[in-house]
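Duplicate of earlier report; NAD(P)-binding domain-containing protein input re-posted below.
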Amino acid sequence: MRTIVSRLIRFKSSIPQTRFVYSGGGRYLSTDSNKIDEPFNVEEAETVHVPPPPTEKLLVLGGNGFVGSHVCKEALDRGLSVSSLSRSGKSSLQESWASRVTWHQGNLLSSDSLKDALDGVTSVISCVGGFGSNSYMYKINGTANINAIRAASEKGVKRFVYISAADFGLANYLLSGYYEGKRAAETELLTRFAYGGIVLRPGFIYGTRNVGSMKIPLGVFVSPMEMVLQQAKPLNQLPLVGPLFTPPVNVESVAKVAVRAATDPVFPPGIVDVHGIQRYSQQKSR
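Output:
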């Protein structure tokens, strides 16, 4: 960013000066005087360098996980300043982008974990979630995210994106703690961030997963299924089994839409289902 300032430079000029002489009868006669040297001011623009304005700062909760790491990378590619908070702290991924993220270690179940991590943050994306017993799933999917939403709201964060999950019919009952926690966090988000809260509800998220030193390309097996189920949208309306036809979605699509939702002020607040995620991911970023 450049700021233009002005300085005044004095020049000599030889411009004829006109004088008026009263001749009586209410009439004036003019005579040209000799050329005189009279200084006058001219403005010349001089460019000086000043520090650029601060960029948007994004905090990714759970940034070292499967979805979170893709969100961090997408945000960096968009030129954002990115930080992350998770229980393990710094990512173990040996990739160049990881060194450009500011890593914080903390537990969202502790109210003090977010204090420093939220300093200067303009938007948050939460990828926090997990499985286990029903009580554990409610805490990690619900309570932990609710704590983060409240802390971000009190800190004046503008936008908050929550990676939730699509309904899967009978699976909702089998994993009641998981879905009850997700829906509780959604309710808190849309209440606290009425104009800047976005919930993404993808189905199964696929992509290349890092397992130790190995990379497993799940897309090879799941991508064809996504293409088929995209054309079978009416099947989602079938009683009980309909949600099982929810198409899977690529992790890069989820990351792209999440970052856009967190940074684009005209991105509408509310719930975005898997079909909305697919649609937004195909649009050009603003």
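The first strand starts at residue 2 and ends at 11.

Merging into the original ticket.
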